[in-house]
Amino acid sequence: MKLCAIQIPFTTNETDAALSVRMAIDELNKCDSSCDIILTPEYTNAPASFPVGKCIPFAQAHTDALISAAKNAAVRCNAIVAVNYVCEAEPGLFRNTTEVFDRQGNSAGRFYKQHLPRAEKNVNLLDEEYTRSFRRPDIITVDGIRFGFLICYDTYFSEYVAHIAHRHPDVVFVSSFQRGERKDILRMQNQHLAFNCNCYVLRASVSMGEHAENGGNAMVVSPEGVILGEFGNQCGTFTCEIDDIKHKHMRSNSFGGSMIPNEQFIEQARATWAYRPCGSMTVEGDAKMEYPRLCAHRGFNTIAPENSLAAFGAAIALGAQEIELDVRFTADGIPVVSHDSNLERVSNGSGTIEEHTLAELRELDFGIKHGEHFTGLQIPTLEEVLCKFARHVIINLHIKSEETHDAPEYPEWQMKKIADLLDTYDQQEHVYFMGAPDVMQSAIKYAPHIPRCIGAFPDPWEIIERGIQYKCQKAQLFAPYYNKEMIEKAHANGMRCTFFYCDDPAKVPELLAMGVDTILTNDYLAISMAAKKYLVESKKK
Q1: Is the model's pLDDT at 515 over the cut of 70?
Q2: Mean pLDDT score of the chain
Q3: pLDDT tens readout for residues 421-450
Q4: Would you list the DSSP string of 75-102?
């Protein structure tokens, strides 16, 4: 079976780009019946650097001729042809797409690039909304051959490669630019891909010039991770013969063991709980997630005890973008989740959190005050919350200090302990600190990478000024000390506004219309339904 990869020049202007597209079409037209599988490089209908807004019009002008040539090549050569191009996936929405055509010239399916660099959205104006929710890596089957896909930037994400491997492809198509990448890196990436997925890799790229040291390098790699052929920075069609497209690398199951497929050898001992949180349960980080949002204050605490795993889990299961929780330290230095320092309201104990050890607190009932169904519920540690919900939700982490810390700066050791836990559970991109000025000052010094949200006190009318002073990314307005001018001033200074709090559905439209970015609520379901109704009606106007 002959695998073919077309390599064309990368260009920097529309005139040369048109010639490069023409070359791709000519190469497709040259393919003959000896070709079995043909792949084109990334952006075959727009192989250039374009100014903002120019990529899509150029691609549109060259798409029909390219796709026509691909279909004709599939029929003429009795081959499977995969073309990467800027595709109008939906009316008015253009995506970086690899489309596969079967031997009759019919579309067998499309793959949309999963990991988009900022330039693809901001310069080329391609759609990326589809990447914001879970979708497993596509497998397109033609004539019994299972094809997987990576496009350029996708190749850098080992977690995604592991997911592709889980789907057992026979061939992975890699359409790419990678203009500045060294050839040894390109070899390493594709050898890793082939070895871990236990399949062939067919890579097509763009030439950066005959003598360029970087980029280019169309190649074929075997399931053993052996490069069977590569093309350097030449232009034209690179070909490579293989014997069995479904060949799998077999290896011993440990030294002296029976022979098993390589991907099975890897999969049998996979310990996903030891990896970074990933998969369908994770969400975008705070910097990427869109507004407006709802934050379940102390969890969904109308149905479960506040600041409990049950309340947090209920809110997250119902779709809360954020949860708010309160952190205090025990007598033995363990951060636990409780709003009150005093134990009487939230448990059957007495005294304060700070004067009890964790072991002593574990003897108390933190559920009975909410209702008999929660009898025996224990106070959660911050680590337990992170272990269960890391990257599942954005956490508004309220570091409590006003009752116990009179110093101008929150204790260094406590701030570092919280920051270390966030780092351990990979939550840094899914959290922000909320607190008083002493907390903000400590956060700036010891955890500057964590976004900060200034609290309303001691003077709620001056909250925006304090937010500016402490270089905060957010300010938490406190009813009734707020107005539209404060929100506008916050936005003008690069701050988002959270609002504490709203449990009245009738109040939601007013807050969102004023520009509140995140509404804290104790009654998550009722407020979320009101917010969804308002947003739907707003889009209709």
Answers
A1: yes
A2: 96
A3: 999 999 999 999 999 999 999 999 999 999
A4: HHHT-EEEEEEEEEEETTEEEEEEEEE-
Full-model pTM: 0.89
Share above pLDDT 90 across residues of the chain, in percent, rounded to a whole number: 95
Q: How far apart are CA 464 and CA 217, in angstroms?
A: 54
| Confidence tier at 407 by pLDDT (50, 70, 90) | low
* 108-164 residue pLDDT tens: 999 999 999 999 999 999 999 999 989 999 999 999 999 999 999 999 999 999 999
Q: How far apart are CA 387 and CA 427, in angstroms?
A: 10
What domains can you pick out in the chain, each with its CATH number?
2-267 (3.60.110.10), 293-540 (3.20.20.190)
Give the per-residue pLDDT at 404.
43
CA–CA distance, 29 with 12 (Å, rounded to integer): 25
Contact 528, 320 (CB under 8 A): yes
Sheet of strand 200-204, all strands in order from the earlier edge strand to the far edge? 140-142, 145-151, 171-175, 200-204, 219-221, 227-230
Crossing angle of the two packed helices 412-424 and 437-446, in degrees rounded to 10: 60
Cis peptide preceding 480, ω within 30 of 0: yes
- Collect all residues with Cβ–Cβ distance below 8 Å to 517 and sequence separation of at least 6: 291, 292, 293, 474, 496, 497, 498
Residue 150 CB contacts under 8 Å (≥ 6 apart), including other chains: 160, 161, 164, 172, 173, 174, 176, 193
Contacts 24+ apart (CB under 8 A), 209-217: 209/9, 209/233, 210/234, 213/182, 213/183, 214/179, 214/180, 214/181, 214/182, 214/183, 215/10, 215/177, 215/178, 215/179, 215/180, 215/181, 216/7, 216/183, 217/183, 217/186, 217/187
Contact between residue 53 and residue 77 where contact means Cβ atoms under 8 Å apart:
no
**Res 207: pLDDT:** 98
Residue type present at position 112: Y
The helix (H) or strand (E) run that includes residue 319 is none
- CB neighbour burial string for 130-141, b if at least 16 within 10 angstroms, e if fewer: eeeeeeebbbbe
